Amino acid sequence: MEHVDYVYTVGMEATELDARLRTGSTAVLALADGDDAYAVPLHYRYDGDRLLVRVSDHDGDAEKRRFLDATDTATLVRYAADAEESWSVHVRGPVREWTDAVDEATLNEWFPPFRLFDEAVGDVSFSLYELEMETVVGRKRV
């Protein structure tokens, strides 16, 4: 493998991990149910203490909820990989439904607009889940 191109990376400090999570709103959430894996891009909110993910429910699609309920340890991945910079942050821990009441105005403040595909607006509802941040690690290109 001596002719393969490499990029060296280093670990990120806690302040940079915090900044990367605070300045973003999209990530990929990886879940598992036994031997089956499921990963979904979604919006999240991180306020320095709590990481919430917004999950849509529509058209009787229960796959996300099934995986959320079955997952013991979830992983949220936020990253950038382009010619100018590359880095990734991985947040791991249990994910549980967040039951505090949140009105629509607060959802609009906390999250970017939801992207509809083939759903009617009236057929979509949201649930919030909290990812307990047991471990937060990141690497960046040097």
Description:
The chain has 142 residues and is of the alpha+beta class. It has one domain: Pnp Oxidase, Chain A (Roll), CATH 2.30.110. It contains three helices and nine strands; from the N terminus they run βαβββαβββαββ. Strands 1-9-6-5-2-3-4-8-7 form a nine-stranded antiparallel β-sheet. The radius of gyration is 17 Å and the shape is globular. 17% of the residues are buried. The model has no long low-confidence stretch (mean pLDDT 92).
List keywords for this structure.
nine-stranded antiparallel β-sheet, 142 residues, 9 strands, alpha+beta, globular
Write the layout of secondary structure elements.
Elements: E1 9-11, H1 14-22, E2 26-33, E3 36-46, E4 51-58, H2 63-70, E5 74-81, E6 86-93, E7 95-97, H3 104-110, E8 124-131, E9 135-141
Antiparallel strand pairs: 1-9, 2-3, 2-5, 3-4, 4-8, 5-6, 6-9, 7-8
